Amino acid sequence: MTDATANQAALNNGSAGSATRAPSLWRYFRRSRLGMAGLALAGLLYLSAFGADFLAPYSVDHQFIRAVHAPPQLPSIRDADGFRWPFVHPLVLTMSPDGLERRYTLDTSRRLPLRIFVRGGEYSLFGLGRARLRLFGVENGEWFPLGTDGMGRDLLSRLLQGGRVSLTVGLFGVLLGMVLGTFVGTVSGFYGGWADGLIQRFVELLMVFPAIPLWMALAAALPPWWGQVEVYCAIVTILSLVGWGGLARQVRGLVLSLRELEYVRAARAFGASDFYIIRKLLIPGCYHHLVVIAALSVPGMILGETALSFLGLGIRPPMTSWGVLLEEAQHVRVLLEYPWLLFPAIPVLLAVVAFNCIGDGMRDALDMKD
């Protein structure tokens, strides 16, 4: 019997229902308040990274020579004369008597009103042209909501831009790892025998090595002359190659149970090829579990990129990421004198919490559906 006949006979009980399961899974997922909260938080993080040029007050590499390690400037709505439109006082730089320490004070005699939709430095508008409109800022002055780094660059602008790299590394790394892990796990579980044994021994050997030292070893082998795009792709590949083993074992377990179901046996009896059974019956049967595994794997990818960049082995300047921003905060002196340099750790924490909540919500929805 041909594959077309097997399709008619088997999909009525198996993979044809996969298209109708997605709405029911979403219906159950919406009942999880924690999962919906995580989804909303993750959506805000990705929207802020997607619109970083518009949201950031300044460009990512703009330096303010007279504002090196400037502290955060908190907006205010009240002064000695009463309530006003939100404003900030400008910073005044002074030097210590020995000329070695910068000191910043607020010039309370001046006010810089906060404005919505102000003109700033030029940036590329998704490759369609150039734009200068920024969501917020001040006119005829400077405002650093989260302070500046050791080169006088606005930390909020760099944090928003760094989210593009850190968040997309997590997505692309999980996507590549899912493709590799799903393929290897499906082949291992479907064929069994010596192929299964060989694949599982290789996966176990890969999982024996500690993840961070293995990441560091692979990242340290990258050629120093590589550009930003090459390093970015290499980091994504390294994170994926190290993290696909656990996914492959889980997919193998699912395939071992799915291959004994009646609709899979019916497809075999009708003469369906192995490729057809894997592509149309087994992999669609793993979709829901793969989504849960993917959601729970994204935090590990983000933390992996952050750890590598923090150690100077990941993303390299002038490209920025949350790990690159945290690299300057690894010295005790910096933590004591410039604690605002730890702000990039907050979005890392939020991203990890958001995806863990999404994964837990999907897992609960899958349990309720089953």
How would you explain this protein's 3D organization?
The protein is an alpha+beta fold and 370 residues long. It folds into 2 domains: 3-53 and 158-369, MetI-like (MetI-like fold); 73-143, no CATH class. It is 59% helix and 12% strand. The chain is built from 14 helices and 6 strands. Strands 1-2-5-6 form a 4-stranded antiparallel beta sheet. The protein is elongated and about 85 Å long. The two termini are 33 Å apart. The model is unreliable at 1-20 (pLDDT under 50).
Q: What's the Cα radius of gyration?
A: 26 Å
Beta-strand portion reads 5-15%
Write down the CATH topology of the largest domain: MetI-like fold
Integer count of domains? 2
* Global geometry: elongated
End-to-end Cα distance, whole Å, is 33 Å
Q: What can be said about the biggest beta sheet?
A: 4 strands, antiparallel
Can you count the helices? 14
Number of strands: 6
In the CATH hierarchy, what is the superfamily of the largest domain? MetI-like
Question: Main attributes?
Answer:
370 residues, MetI-like fold, two-stranded antiparallel ribbon, 6 strands, single chain, four-stranded antiparallel β-sheet, alpha+beta
Give the helices and strands, then pairings.
Elements: H1 3-10, H2 18-29, H3 33-50, H4 52-55, E1 76-79, E2 82-88, E3 91-95, E4 102-106, E5 112-124, E6 130-138, H5 155-191, H6 193-208, H7 211-220, H8 228-258, H9 262-269, H10 274-285, H11 287-310, H12 322-327, H13 332-337, H14 345-369
Antiparallel strand pairs: 1-2, 2-5, 3-4, 5-6
